[in-house]
Design goal:
Length: 273
């Protein structure tokens, strides 16, 4: 029997801008209209998070520590509460906004830049590098000149659930939490120091009447055009477009509004009711 599969990654971001892998989510739809949702939590990363940032995946009893939660022919609470229902009056408009012809609720959730307000979770599309289990970084000095820069790059790998191998040591689920807390402290202190020095420079420039505001981030116009069209066409989400351009989602929206003024309203939509 023919089956169409959509796969995403449930994530959340912290105040330092680090993204955490919470669970792989897969939706399979078959010709006889039966369907299956499955969730594969990444407990090694989940165990790093405190309750102020992560309160679980709604509708799943995470205390059971199952490697896979399956819902056959039932729409999970996680999907139900943050995507449009089949009978919603403005469904056609919501689908058109994401370039979709029919409702696939997980696909809609991946594409939309609307955020559910009940928690910090969001879904992006599953990528080939999400399947990588171990990353060999070699000499740590290649990750950056400053210790804080190296810590940031290691944290990005650990928070996405990757094991890390470097010259002389390995980080995996056995020591992930210990290394995470060590690195997050190092990176947090380094970032605070850098932010403080930057603000002192801004304040000094203001006093000397030299400060004209932050210069706009330089982006290759051709890359901005191609990725901008892909975003506005619903091929990629706002977070994916921003990541590819190396900018924040808010900066992406400002650039899109300036570059494509006629699309400004659709690229700055607010939360789904």
């Amino acid at each position: 029997m023919r089956e169409i599969t959509t796969t995403g990654l449930i994530c959340l971001d912290d105040s330092l801008g680090l993204s955490y892998r919470i669970a792989k989510i897969t939706y399979a739809e078959r010709e006889d209209e039966s369907f299956t949702y499955s969730f594969e939590p990444c407990y090694g990363v989940i165990d790093l998070l405190d309750s102020s940032l992560y309160q679980g995946i709604p509708g799943l009893d995470m205390s059971m520590r199952k490697p896979r939660y399956v819902r056959n022919n039932v729409t999970p609470v996680f999907i139900e509460e943050r995507t449009p229902a089949p009978g919603r009056e403005d469904l056609v408009e919501l689908l058109d906004a994401e370039g979709m012809e029919y409702l696939n609720r997980l696909e809609w959730l991946i594409r939309t830049n609307l955020r559910y307000g009940g928690d910090n979770l969001y879904v992006r599309r599953w990528r080939p590098d999400d399947d990588v289990t171990e990353v060999d970084v070699g000499d740590l000095r290649a990750l950056g000149r400053r210790s804080g820069e190296r810590a940031r790059k290691l944290l990005e790998l650990l928070c996405m659930g990757h094991d890390v191998r470097a010259d002389g040591f390995t980080i995996n689920d056995v020591n992930r939490a210990d290394m995470y807390h060590l690195l997050i402290s190092l990176y947090g202190n380094d970032k605070h120091f850098a932010d403080t020095r930057r603000q002192e420079g801004v304040d000094r420039a203001k006093r000397e009447r030299k400060y004209g505001g932050r210069k706009p981030i330089s982006i290759d116009p051709r890359k901005l055009d191609s990725i901008g069209y892909a975003f506005l066409g619903g091929e990629i989400s706002a977070s994916e477009a921003a990541s590819q351009l190396g900018i924040s989602v808010s900066t992406l929206r400002r650039r899109m509004k300036k570059l494509f003024p006629e699309a400004g309203a659709s690229s700055s939509r607010e939360q789904v009711e």
